[in-house]
């Protein structure tokens, strides 16, 4: 797969972006917890700033990604992300810490334009039988940074502070843009169709395309449920370390590392069986394991048990990521990749933002184990919604959109 210049270049860019994002996110998390004495509401706001743009801009970014040249779009987004980091650094020097949320918010907006462009390139330049393997490769890369990201982010922040951390992030974004210049020049057919259409028309076609496809429609229901499940607990892992395990907030890097190392192993294992297992089976398996692991982590007060559950969850988490992305890639035509992702992502991210917005308050009004129990139940519901697709011997094929008005 790495002989393909598109895969090789996008992987390199993705690695740089992942490292920059981990350094930025951990620095902001630790900085804000220092300033607010571990206030769960403020910690939740960090995640809201990171994921709210997915809900607000995914369908818009996906539609434009289908219209614009992918290479140019990806490079522009990286350059703008880097510029936003340096502007925020200047503002932070004179202002309050809340300006950090703007950096995260703006960078997340740009991701809604660049990520669909990368998927569009892969859809057009990778053989269909290799798609699940490519998704597994991306999952393994993400897992690698789950291992090293927390350590690097914590080390840089503790030794050099917030300003150096954000500066490194901006530099990594710039290098990513430079790497992307090595992608072969966008082909003419990647531009807008010879029949110019209006943005709103294309957006409606994308939504109708998803609705007419049984697999994508079912996936949308699952996205909605598991988005809420993830959102409820996403900002609260730091309280598992502090309250359940009796450790300081820096301890958070260790369960995250254990989870990431297991994800790396799990991603490698799935790469070996990617062609033999239906993506919907991978997704259901991952969600069922997440149900058990989430419930266990919420109630565990043992470091050994929590770390074990994090490893168990990590081994099967790639099933979720690879299953979702493969189902979308296989069930959408290249011309609709951006809009399919743009239509489905807000279902996940929108509910995730809802979960993150109420997770901190729910935890404060009830308990940490209650929030984790609710999240586990939602993962189970998400898996049950997919059960009808398990009877399909292969994924439902893409349905051509109805162009009529």
TrEMBL record:
Keywords from the named record: Cell membrane, Membrane, Transmembrane, Transmembrane helix, Transport
Entry's Gene Ontology molecular function annotations: transmembrane transporter activity
Organism: Paenibacillus kribbensis
GO CC term, one of those recorded: plasma membrane
UniProt superkingdom: Bacteria
Entries under InterPro entries matching the protein: MFS, MFS_dom, MFS_trans_sf
Keyword Transmembrane helix among UniProt keywords: yes
Membrane topology, from the record: Multi-pass membrane protein
Domain Major facilitator superfamily (MFS) profile, chain residue ranges per copy: 1-394
PANTHER family (alphabetical): INTEGRAL MEMBRANE EFFLUX PROTEIN-RELATED, MAJOR FACILITATOR SUPERFAMILY ASSOCIATED DOMAIN-CONTAINING PROTEIN
UniProt-listed PROSITE patterns: MFS (PS50850)
Cytoplasm among keywords: no
Cellular compartment(s): Cell membrane
Main location: membrane
TM region positions: 12-32, 44-65, 77-94, 134-156, 162-180, 218-242, 254-274, 281-299, 305-324, 336-358, 370-390
Name of the protein this chain belongs to: MFS transporter
